[in-house]
Amino acid sequence: MVRLKHIKHYIRVKSVNEALEILDGKKENSSLIAGGTSLTFRKPPPRIDTLVDITFCGLNYLKLQKDKLCLGATITLSEIAESEEAGKLFDGILRKAIYSTASSSLRNLITIGGNVVGVFSWSTQPLVLSLLEARMIFQSSSGMRTENAVELFSQSPGEWIKPAEILAEIQIPLPQVNNSFCAFKKFSRTATEFAWINAGVKLEFEPGTNAIKNTRLIVGAVSPLPQQLKKTAELLNGNQLNDQLIEEAAFTASEEARINKDLRCGKEYKREILVVILREMLTEILNARMQQLTRVSCKKE
Amino acid sequence: MIIEPIINGKKCRLEIEPGDVLLDVLRRAGYTGVKEGCREGECGCCVILLEGRAVNSCLVLAAKTDGKNITTIEGLGTVKQPHPLQKLFVSEGAVQCGYCTPGIILSTKALLDKNPSPSEDEIWLALDSHLCRCTGYVKIIKAVKKAAQEKSKNSSNSRSTE
Question: Within an 8 Å CB–CB cutoff, is residue A44 touching chain B?
């Protein structure tokens, strides 16, 4: 990043209300900053002369409640990944997705809120939050607004966050029963590179069986917004998960996904990668489910 | 604007512009061990410790560091009294041109302060921010492993003398 010459004011606020007062007063000329790493990709336009730093207004928390995990918008990706909760909950995909993001020194700066509102096509967090049906809590001087991640990230990015509004918290509901499994994979040539393609799948099974009750399948980094693959999900729902179904689902997904041009590789290559990573994720879930069912039947005996 | 970070244990008073990048501010203040590379957070040679965590100083606005603890390579050791990590990197052949080395040593320090006995995978993960064109990384990893062993030996020695 080079020096931002047109920035004349840097305000470090101590509360969300203080930030909102400034945004209300100087809407056109001010911009929020948390980790600040995206400034190297998206320099603030010349009309922005004020940066409002919200990293010290109490939004860097992680709280596990009875029914949800609450993440303050300015908690860093490292802090989330290092938490016990990220490793134990949701089959560890929150931690896995974060460790696939950038590098360790960048994860010490990148905040979850910034990663979401930055609307980067390669971001893993919108994909994972959609998969886990997270709720995004926005705050403005006129009150709070809650949006479901799936619906939010299907809209045009310009409509995600309104003027003079702050993304304050992300809430991830905890699974109520033990019949859900999640998996996440990112493909790139090197560990720290932007994703060529990433994907996440969440399967909910009928109790005591291998039959799929509900599927959520999301692909990212192939288009500006994460995509839900509904046709592939319908193929899986109501059926027993086995190798044959996995193969069919993997190929259906590769045909269903809308894939944009990428300088690094062709669309067809990305489709082939999608087949492989979806096959791997569904196989991972199948193995985990079989192990769980085996443990349960051993206990009964 | 004035910021007052604590650099290498010493409270400093620096005059900066709000849009100044920490890398440039530190180098202007004489901490030239913080190296300029890609300025995009890709190469890791500008890595410093901010509140004990390794960060790319090329992506941090200096204004964010008011009142914060910053450690640069100068804060670790000197030519006459090098830090054990610096000595090990030299003795293990983990330094060739040396440009990437300050950042790597600081990331190593952050790792070992938090995790005194890292696995090889954990070492690779902690150093994933850093590019080195010279060494091929093998001797760097070996130096970090040795540093972890020696740190572990020193702490068990000090426990037994107690």
Answer: no
DSSP classification of residue A159: G
In whole angstroms, give the CA distance from residue A158 to residue B64. Answer: 27
Determine which of A189-193, B10-14, B28-32 has the lowest per-residue pLDDT on average. A189-193
Run of H or E residues at A220: strand A212-220
Q: How many angstroms separate the CA atoms of A247 and A249, rounded?
A: 5
Calculate the CA B157 to chain-centre distance: 26
ipTM of this predicted complex? 0.94
More reliable by pLDDT, B36 or B151: B36
Whole-model pTM: value is: 0.93
CA distance A74 to A55: 6
Judged by DSSP in three states, A240 sits in: strand
Residues B25-53, mean pLDDT to the nearest whole number: 96
CB A153 within 8 A of CB A130: yes
Residue A300: its pLDDT value, please? 65
B105: enclosing H helix or E strand: helix B101-114
**Residues contacting residue A108 through CB under 8 Å, at least 6 positions apart:** A76, A78, B50, B53, B54, B55
Distance from A8 to chain B by nearest Cα, in Å? 6
Q: Rounded distance, CA A41 to CA A153, Å? A: 21
* pLDDT given for residue B159 in this prediction: 62
Nearest to B100 by CA among B147, B141, B43, B139: B43
B128 and A103: CB-CB below 8 Å?
A: yes
Q: Rounded to whole angstroms, how far apart are CA atoms A182 and A194?
A: 22
- pLDDT value at residue A187: 94
| Angle between the N-to-C axes of helices A243-256 and A267-300, in degrees from 0 to 180, rounded to the nearest 10 | 150
Q: Measured between CB atoms, does A109 come within 8 Å of chain B?
A: yes
Range among A5-14, A286-295, B50-59 with highest mean pLDDT value: B50-59
Residue B161: per-residue pLDDT? 54
Q: Where residue A10 falls among pLDDT bands split at 50, 70, 90?
A: very high
Cα A171 from Cα A53, distance rounded (Å): 22
* Cα–Cα distance for residue pair A113/A231, rounded to 1 Å: 30
Bridge pairing between strands A135-140 and A165-173: antiparallel
- What share of chain A has pLDDT > 90, as a percent? 67
Maximum Cα–Cα distance across chain A: 72
- Partner A contacted by B21 (CB < 8 A): yes
| Total beta-carbon pairs less than 8 A apart between chain A and chain B | 89
Interface mutation vs chain A, best among B16, B51, B53, most A CBs within 10 Å? B53
